[in-house]
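User: Can you write out an input/output pair for a complex, sequences first and structure second?

Assistant: Here is one pair. Inputs:
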Amino acid sequence: MNKLFQLRDVGLSMDGQAILKNLNLDIFAGEFLAILGPSGSGKSTCLRLLNNLYSARFGEILYKDKDITDYDIQSLRKEVAFLLQNPIMFKGSVEINLLRAHEWFPDSDTQNETLVKILNDVGLDEHYLYKEANRLSGGEKQRVALARLLLNRPTVLLLDEPTANLDPALAQRILNRIKKLQERYNLTVVMVSHDHELVKNYAHRVAFLLEGNIVAMSQSADVNDIQNEAVMAFIKESRYEI
Amino acid sequence: MKFDFLVLSWYDVVFSLMFVAGSYGLLRYWKLDLSQSLIIGSVRAFLQLTIMGYVLTYFFRQNNWVFMILLLLIMISIASFEGTRRQDIHIKNMFLIFLGTMILTTFVILASILVFIMEVKPWYFPYAMIPIAGMIIGNATNSTSLSINRFVGELRHRQDEIETLLSLGAPPREAIIDAYRDSLKAALIPNINGMMMVGLVQIPGVMTGQILSGIDPLVAVKYQIIIMYMWTATATLANVIILSIIYRGFFNERWQFKKQMLSQGNKLKKIKSTSK
């Protein structure tokens, strides 16, 4: 498989505190990579680096073998889509929410049929188009936010704990949907989570991030066979992010 | 129309101290902790305004445009310093941004009033220029301080929204547009409400002053109307300029949001680091 992202000795600190330290990670095209770790381990920061919402202070990040900072920022963010933990809905209908995110991309296909198709992709019917976005449930908002990203036809989906505020059954439904979308559109998915049980049905590989560094990498979704003390302690003590 | 009794003597001013004395007596009777502040406030008002009167008399006698421009620049610099001091976070080059905004706003509004509306001759006639410039600068300082504080508050409140928009490829201007609009609105509402209410309850300040000095109320009304329109234009122009400049400081060239600028300790940290 091709390496889509290559993170080499990446370091980042904020307010004098190191968030990421000499982080090395390869992300392959078409894979579903889960990044697990406790709260404050640098998981979300890692995703923000890939979308270039943050820049690395040290080291380099290559995207398709080219330094990420050499890309035009707008086209990079269009290609590498980022879903925040708490989906933000703008004032107005779902349709306005979908269109708002494409005002700065004049060549976007924003025809009504396309919007409906994308909504169907995330499991919502066309009636949702005219509903007030801020009145939707948490799960519905998350799906609208996902649809908004898909309109950009991204190649990478970065998911920052997309199911953290949802009940387990709904969380599974959303992840099933994401998995289907990944296969349909051949997306590369990088998902941050604190729940190793949840990701094992979806991820191809799992990376463990502790104190700003990858301490272990599982070549399968089953993390129980990882022989790393810190990871074993993390799983055993269930010191998961809440 | 002039009435001799409208000309006040210093004895009249001293006699007006009876208002302060009456208030002082009431405050003492109710054992309010304000009587000392009342005395200090009254003395300060007397001294500050008397000094201002002498200073203005001196300036009004200077019939020299270079002198007037220098005076305007001093007024603008003091206002810019005050505006910068009122911000609770550190924004790079804030003083210069304030200074540029004030110079541009004052120049445009003052020139329009003096040259096109009042047709003052010479254009730097101190009796017209100084009070009008003072109103423009004062209004612009208050209004921009309000809008910047509101803008910073909006950015703090909307961090996730701004990050969402940026992550979708929005340019910084699009990412902050709602925060910008709300801040501008908050800054302009007092001026617009002022125009809605003027003349319904009380006679506004400029008009009161003119009527007391014997000017026909209809002439005073014209001045008041022009001044209220001028205030609104000043606030609009100054806020549009300053917000359009400062929002850029919250982003870098990679369209990344500098959230750390929003922490309230930021100004203190900056002061500490520069004093090392």
